[in-house]
Design goal:
Layout lengths: L1 H95 L1 H24 L4 E2 L6 H4 L7 E2 L1 H25 L12
Parallel strand pairs: 1-2
Length: about 180
């Protein structure tokens, strides 16, 4: 029976040792959990402080943005009021009858100017009195303008070409009747 007693004792001792080990593991887990809670609380406090600081910065930015929007709104309202005044003035001016006369005169001036510019630029070549006159200044392609100092040169060149042409025709026998019958 001695062996049975020892077996029962060791089985009991193993059970007690197992419970002590479980209790120590439980206590260790409790301590770890307590430390984790302490760390979490400290992190929460630090993050709350940081979050509060960030929230304060965001609030300041939001207030500044709100003030800027208020200023923009005031400026828009002021511009709208100015535009409204201008619109009422323009309406009164149109209603007075003077606008029709001014519109008619401005139309005449505009279309006359456009016609003058088109008339000066439509021909391929045009003669102008000087290079400081309106004829020359309104011309878009200034290379096609003939000025008085160029006129004599152009006439002389034309006469030379004309004489060369007559001389070439005489040499080739064009116009003498010699070309008509080659068997003579």
């Amino acid at each position: 029976m001695g062996d049975d007693t020892l077996i029962a004792f060791f089985a009991n001792a193993d059970a007690v040792a197992q419970r002590i080990q479980e209790w120590n593991e439980y206590r260790l887990k409790q301590e770890i959990a307590a430390k984790e809670r302490t760390i979490d609380i400290q992190v929460d406090k630090a993050s709350n402080a940081k979050a509060t600081q960030l929230a304060a910065q965001k609030l300041l930015k939001l207030q500044a943005w709100n003030e800027a929007q208020t200023q923009r709104q005031k400026l828009r309202h002021k511009r709208f009021e100015q535009f409204k005044e201008l619109l009422f003035w323009a309406g009164a001016w149109v209603g007075s009858g003077r606008s029709g006369t001014l519109f008619f005169l401005s139309g005449i001036v505009t279309f006359t100017t456009l016609g003058l510019i088109a008339g000066l630029n439509w021909p391929t070549t045009i003669a102008c009195k000087s290079d400081s006159g309106g004829c020359y200044l309104l011309r878009l392609d200034k290379k096609t303008v003939i000025l008085p100092q160029q006129f004599k040169n152009i006439l002389a060149e034309y006469e030379r070409n004309k004489n060369k042409s007559k001389h070439l025709k005489r040499e080739q026998g064009i116009g003498n009747g010699e070309q008509g019958n080659p068997h003579k």
